[in-house]
Specification:
Layout lengths: L4 E9 L2 E9 L2 H10 L6 H5 L6 E8 L2 H11 L2 H9 L5 H7 E23 L2 E20 L2 H13 L3 E5 L2 E4 L3
Antiparallel strand pairs: 1-2, 3-4, 4-5, 6-7
C-alpha cells in the first residue's frame, strides 16, 4: 500500500525477546486501522496457558467490527456473505462470537531422537532422526455464547473440528 510505513525494534535481554512497532497508514486505510482498534493482550487468557515450559506465546486484541470495516472497504462483503450463507452463517455470527482477544501458546517443546533403519543394496543402514514434540493452545475470548455455539456447530458439521471430549475440539487438519 502506497504511503504506509512501519517502524519497530526488537530487544534481546536475559533470554527474553520483546518488540515494539508503530504503523503509519496512508489516509485510505487509516479509518480501517482505527476501526480495528488494536489493544494489548488480555491478561485473563495469559493466565490460562498450561504447560511446564513456555516456548512461544503470541497474544493480541483486534476489534471484530474493524474486520467488518475492512471487508466493506475492500468491497468484498457480498462475496463473504455468499460464502458464509452456504454454512448457515453470517459475518455478524462470526464477529459477535468473539471479543477480539486471542492467544497462541506453544509449551513443553522437546526433540527426541528416533532410531530408523533401511536396506540399501543389501546392506542395512541405521540412523537417527529428530522427532519434535510440543503442546499448542489457541484461545479466543467468547463474547456471545449463542453466536459462538452456532459457529462451533458449523465447524463440527463441516468436519473442520472434531469433538474429542466435552468442550474439547481438535482441528481436522492436525
Amino acid at each position: 500500500v502506497k504511503d504506509a510505513y512501519m517502524a519497530g525494534g526488537v530487544n534481546f535481554e536475559n533470554g527474553k525477546i520483546t518488540g515494539d512497532a508503530t504503523y503509519y497508514f496512508n489516509p485510505t486505510v487509516k479509518a480501517v486501522a482505527e476501526a480495528l482498534e488494536v489493544k494489548s493482550a488480555n491478561e485473563d487468557l495469559l493466565k490460562k496457558v498450561q504447560g511446564k515450559q513456555l516456548n512461544l506465546m503470541m497474544s493480541y486484541h483486534i476489534n471484530p467490527q474493524g474486520i467488518k470495516t475492512l471487508i466493506d472497504t475492500l468491497g468484498v462483503m457480498p462475496y463473504v456473505a455468499m460464502g458464509l450463507k452456504d454454512y448457515g452463517l453470517t459475518l455478524d455470527d462470526i464477529l459477535n462470537a468473539f471479543s477480539g482477544d486471542f492467544l497462541l501458546a506453544v509449551t513443553d517443546f522437546s526433540v527426541a531422537t528416533e532410531s530408523q533403519s533401511y536396506t540399501l543394496g543389501g546392506s542395512s543402514v541405521n540412523y537417527t532422526k529428530p522427532v519434535p514434540s510440543f503442546k499448542a493452545t489457541l484461545s479466543f475470548k467468547v463474547k456471545d455464547k449463542t453466536a459462538f455455539d452456532k459457529l462451533l456447530q458449523a465447524a463440527v458439521g463441516q468436519q473442520i473440528l472434531t469433538s474429542s471430549a466435552p468442550n474439547v475440539y481438535t482441528a481436522g487438519f492436525i
